[in-house]
Amino acid sequence: MNMECTFFVSVKLSSSKGSKMLTVLQFFVTFYLLGAIFAQHTPHFKPGHRVIVELFEWTFQDIAKECVFLGQQGFGGVQVAPVQEHAIIKGRPWWERYQPVSYKIFTRSGGEKEFQEMVKACNESGIRIYVDVILNHMAAPSSFNTTDIVEGIGGSVANPNLKEYPGVPFTSADFHKDCDIEEGFYKTDAHGIRNCKMVSLPDLDHYKTNVKQHQVAFLNRLVEFGVAGFRIDKAKHMWPIDCRDIYAQVNDLNTDFDFPENARPFFYQEVVDMGSEAISKIEYAGYGVVTEFVASYILANVLKGGAPLTDLKLWGDKMGLLQSKDALVFVDNHDTQRGTGAGGETILNYKNRKLYTMANAFLLSHPYGHKRIMSSFAFTNSDQGPPTNKDDTIRSPFCEDSVEDDCKDDDNNQKDEYGHKQEQHCRNESGWVCEHRWPSIVNMVKMVNIVKDEPITNFGSIAPNHIYFCRGGKAFIALNNDPVEKFNKTINTCLQEGVYCDVISGGLRSGVGDRKCTGLEIIVANDKTARIIIPEDDEYGVIVIHTESKLQ
């Protein structure tokens, strides 16, 4: 693939005598090049697995353990926090992970050995790994230090004021000239956004061969270890042509991890484009998937009452969003859930459980986009880092494994339906939220695998904030976002006659001699209709049934 990219660029168009031959040659080279680009839109899920979960700030060892659960429940992959060595910042805020000092694999989550073991274990459980990588910049000068030296967690040191990062190594010659991104640039100055510093972070110059070589070597090392792809942090602040050139030089995926021959890494790029900006998300869509932040805002705004639910009938590219194949969609991420990212305080997070459940249910039940869900730690301020033990190591979400006394309770030995101790996994004492383990979200991930690519049919409404639709003949979804009016109507569910378990309020529990609904039961008549009732004060605001939630 890399030879094809290089060859395409080197073809000269000046020959007239051989113009016909050249045109044919260009056609085939272009065909192969486009094939490589389109392949970078493929997440390479294993059969029966879809949906990425961002296990933000989990340790590599805990991710490896959690991949057993994720594989059993049909998740497709895990996005891990940046793995490159980062600066140690006073107070240990979460964003120190986005202040790289080298490309060593050494972070708060663990070192290179733990990372390799995690990737291997997750692949064996059917879970792909996508690494959040920072290519735009290096660590900023620290306002907490009395010297210019910044220390990395793996022992590297750097002098951001002099733009010296010997752990790579980078020198001042590898960076753009000093300038700061001003607020007005985002509306008018694409050059300034891509060539100047964002919040004092030294901005790398990807025109320099040295920069690309170090970054490609880093990405290739991760590919060798078995990762399936990358989230490109701050891609908006890099020139699209540089993104293209870097991606093209990354090796094909490692077939030792059950990837097919010639499989290209999956790239999804962080590009904040809320409309009317100097930089457009469309500029990056040709080289990989792009984060669709407008989708998060629209969904949150509707559920918070800023627009009727019926507006969601146009969800997707009809709303001006990216084409489905080009879009990564999510309710929130580690930036936006803190109210400081794209969409501001409108964005939903785990703190409003009902609306958050509705948002994820709609996002996952709709066929639009590549889907990623968030798994958080609890926070009370926007800088707060992950839960830690007394020795400042990251606390395990598995409370039974914690060294902390306040996270232990030997009397709580109940196990949930997944075989984990229900009261000890992600308890309040652990500091982790683990939205991906909420039964409603786990069950919706299973539904995504059941409906696959079935189209939306029978989309309807009985009021501006009462909507419903089918996914072919495999699933039915209804939402009520009206604070005063009950959803109460007999509707065609597109499903065969029988009793179905609502997977939001519970689902179907199947066992020897014990098959029952753990939540709401929906009776579908022989004409495929059912009486759907969602009270205005319902705990969830949404009902979902599908072919595999049928009781009888």
Could you characterize the architecture of this molecule?
It is a single chain. With 552 residues, the chain is α/β, with parallel strands linked by helices. Helices cover 23% and strands 20% of the residues. The chain has an eight-stranded parallel β-barrel, surrounded by five helices. Strands 14-15-16-23 form a four-stranded antiparallel sheet, with helices on one face. Strands 3-4-5 form a three-stranded antiparallel sheet. Strand 4 and strand 5 form a beta hairpin. The protein starts with a helix and ends in a 6-residue tail after the last strand.
Largest sheet: 8 strands, parallel, barrel
Our count of domains comes out at 3
> What CATH architecture label of the largest domain applies?
Alpha-Beta Barrel
Please identify the top-level CATH class of the largest domain: Alpha Beta
- What best-fitting shape do the alpha-carbon axes yield? globular
> Beta fraction of the residues?
15-25%
Which structural class should the secondary elements be placed in? Answer: alpha/beta
Helix content: 10-25%
CATH superfamily heading of the largest domain: Glycosidases
Number of helices: 11
What is the CATH topology descriptor of the largest domain? TIM Barrel
Q: Give the terminus-to-terminus CA distance.
A: 52 Å
Write down how many β-strands occur, each being a DSSP E stretch of 2 or more residues.
23
Radius of gyration: 24 Å
Task: Give the strand order of the largest sheet, numbering strands 1, 2, ... along the chain.
Answer: 1-2-6-9-10-11-12-13
